[in-house]
TrEMBL record:
Protein name, entry field: NPS3A protein
SUPFAM superfamilies for the chain: Dimeric alpha+beta barrel
Coiled coil: none
PANTHER family, sorted: NIPSNAP-RELATED, PROTEIN NIPSNAP HOMOLOG 3B
InterPro entries: Dimeric_a/b-barrel, NIPSNAP, NipSnap_domain
One term under GO cellular component: mitochondrion
GO biological process: mitophagy
Gene name linked to the record: Nipsnap3a
Gene3D superfamilies the UniProt entry points to: 3.30.70.100
Ranges where the NIPSNAP domain occurs: 13-111, 122-221
A Pfam family of this chain: NIPSNAP
Length: 223
């Protein structure tokens, strides 16, 4: 039932989340920063982060594809890339406890953005909405997100509506100068009548919400 307006082109984003063994997290991050250029030679990496608050020992990366045929071609090329397989995949596979991937489209009112400067932290907010898709809750959700953004306390980088994975899920990626900057801005937003009204309208369609603080990797285009 995930129906409603969507972007007109075939571009989609694959969101991959890996749980890393706690004792291997440092080593995994070092290997990724050293060898991830073998992977980015095949397709566009939007960003690569590790979790700091809200979840531990996880990494999250987002890949952009023109269409599903493009992804299929990339996956085939990766399987035959000896450097990627030998120097990274074969080494890190024993470090990974679990893998999860989703496919999402940018919501039609959002363009993928960038932070005003390097540094800072990212917030990954997952909203599980009631069944019905954007046709049911899209406008209320948009109003709630924009009410927060319009306060100026955070910057919207992207909002992704799932196509594969758990449906009626929206992942929102935001940027702040620091965790303290986010905390102060969020406190102010909670006292803003416009934000309060928009959230009260949107929360009627909300099943659950999870927030994770992300730190960008050295190899991440979004820093």
């Amino acid at each position: 039932l995930a129906t409603g307006p969507r972007q007109n082109n075939g571009i989609f984003y694959e969101i991959r989340t890996y749980d890393i063994k706690p004792a291997k997290m440092k080593e995994f991050l070092e290997l990724a920063n050293k060898h991830f250029h073998f992977r980015t030679a095949h397709s566009e990496l939007v960003g690569f982060w590790y979790t700091d608050l809200g979840a531990l020992n996880k990494v999250l990366h987002i890949w952009k594809y023109d269409n599903f045929a493009h992804r299929t071609a990339v996956r085939h090329a990766l399987a035959n890339d000896k450097d990627w397989q030998g120097k990274f995949i074969s080494v890190v596979l024993p470090m990974i406890e679990k893998q999860h991937n989703e496919v999402g489209y940018l919501v039609p009112w959002c363009q993928l953005g960038k932070p005003p400067k390097e540094g800072g932290v990212y917030e990954w907010v997952t909203f599980q909405m009631k069944p019905g898709g954007p046709a049911l809750w899209g406008e209320a959700f948009r109003a709630a997100i924009n009410a927060h953004i319009n306060t100026g306390y955070t910057r919207l980088i992207g909002a992704f509506h799932t196509e594969y994975g758990l449906l009626n899920t929206v992942h929102v990626l935001r940027w702040n100068e620091s965790p303290d900057h986010r905390a102060a801005g969020r406190h102010s937003a909670h006292e803003d009548a416009r934000v309060v009204a928009a959230v009260r309208d949107s929360v009627r369609f909300l099943e659950s919400q999870q927030n994770v603080l992300l730190i960008p990797m050295q190899c991440s285009p979004l820093k």
